[in-house]
Structures
1.
Amino acid sequence: MEPPDARLTRVFADGYRNFAGTIDADLPGLTVVFGANNSGKTALTRLPLFVAASLCSDALYCLTSNNVRFAGDFRTLTHVSRVHPSITYGAEWVQGETPCLARILLQLVSTGEGSEEVIPLRIETTSGVIYEARIDDELDIGALNHAYELMVPTRDAMSTILLGALHVPSTRPQVKAVYEYQDRIDAPTPTVQDVPALLAHEPELRATVSSWFEEHLGHRSLAVDNAAFAFRLVSGSGTTGAINMSAAGRGSQAVLPVIALLKAVELGIIQPPLVIVEEPEAHLHPSAQAPLADLLLAVQGAGSRVIVETHSEALTRIVQEAA
C-alpha cells in the first residue's frame, strides 16, 4: 500500500497523566523514551495515539482505542494536581506539503446534582481559533457544531494516521502450538496478533526473520509447518528436528512479533508512517540488543517515524551514537 499522506511531526499536552506541566515532543526519525519505572514512559510513548484518537472522537478525548487504554476516565487522564481536571493537547502534522495544526483545551465541570461533564473551552486548527468559551458560559451548541464541521479535515488526517500506525505493545502474545489457517491480512497495518499469519503468507519475511534469529539468538531456521486447515511455527526442520516455537524460551517468543513487524517495515511489506514499540528488549539477552537497535534504525531509514520505550541503556546509547 502507499504510505498515508498525513505524517505527524509534533505532539504536545499539558496536564496529561503523570505530567503536571507541558509535554512538547518533536517527532524526528527515531525517538527513544528512557526512564525509571512509574515515570510516565508508556503514557508519553502513547501520546501520539491518544492525540490522534481524541481528535477523531466526538467527545474530543479518547480513553481506549484499538485495545490501547489511555485512562479509566477523564479524571485519571489528567494530572492529579489539578483541582478542576483539565487537559490541553494537540499535534502538528504535514498533509502533503502543507503544515497543519490542531490544539484542544478540555475541562471537567459540574452540571449540578452531583453530575459532571467534559466541555471544550478552546478549539484551534490550522485556520486559527474556531471555538472559544469560558467555564461560566452556557454551552453554545450551534457554535460547537460549526467547529466540529470545520474539524472534518483534521479528523480525516488523524483517522489516516491512526489507521496506519504500527503499535507493538509491551504485552505480547505467546506463540501458540497450532494456528487455524488464516487468509492474507487485509488490514493496512497488522498487529502483534497477526504476526503468525503474516509469517505464513510472506516467505521473504519469514526467511529474513529466520536469519535474524539464527544470527543473534542461536536458533535454527524458522519455518511454517502447514496442514490442510492449520499451521504451526517451528524452529528447525524434519520430522525429529523441528521444535514448535511455542516451546521456545520466553525471550524468543516475546521478541518474535517485534522482529517480524520491524522486518516487514524494513522490507516494505507494510509502510506505516508511525511505528511505536514498547520495551522491545523485554526478556532479551543484552547481546541481542545491539542488533535490535540496528533494526530500529533501519526502520527509521525506511521512512517511518519511530518511537521506542525502553529500559535498556545499551539500546539507548547505540541510538544516541547513531544520531
Note: The chain has two domains: 6-164, 167-322.
2.
Amino acid sequence: MKQLKAFTIIEMLVVLVLSAVVFGIAASAWLYFEKLENKINTSQSYLLAFNKFDYLIKNDVNNANEINGNETDLYFDINNQHQKIHYQFFDTSIVRNQEDISDTLNIYYTKKYQFAKKSNDLISKIDIVFKLYNDSIPKSYIKWYDNKTLLEHSDN
C-alpha cells in the first residue's frame, strides 16, 4: 500500500487554532485603532469649533459699535455695516446668527460669560471658561468703547 504525503488532522487543527489567534489579535487591533481614530476626529472637530468661535468672537468684539446682552444671549452691533450678530449660549453649543447665516458650534463650557459694564447697558468684558477633556481654558474678550459711545449710554 502506497502512503501519500499529507498533513495529519492534528497538524491541521494546530494551524486552524494559530490562524484563529492571529485573526483575533488582528481584529482587536483593528477595533482599537478605529476607536483611536474616532477619538482623534472628535477632538479635532472640537478644537476646530473652539478656534472658529475664538476667531469669530474676537472679530465681532473688535468690529462692534456696541455689545449688549443677557444671561443666554449676546448682541453685537457691527460698525458701518448696519448688521447685528446674535450669539445664543446653550448647554453644549453656541449658536451664532448673522443675517441669513447661522453657525452652530458644539463647544462645552463650564462657566457662562460675565458682564463688566462700563455704562447702563454696554458689555465691555466677556469671560468664558471652556472645557476640553479635563482641562479648563479661560478666555476673556474685552471691548474698549470710545467716549462718545459711553456718553450716549450713560445714566446722566
Note: Residues 9-152 form one domain.
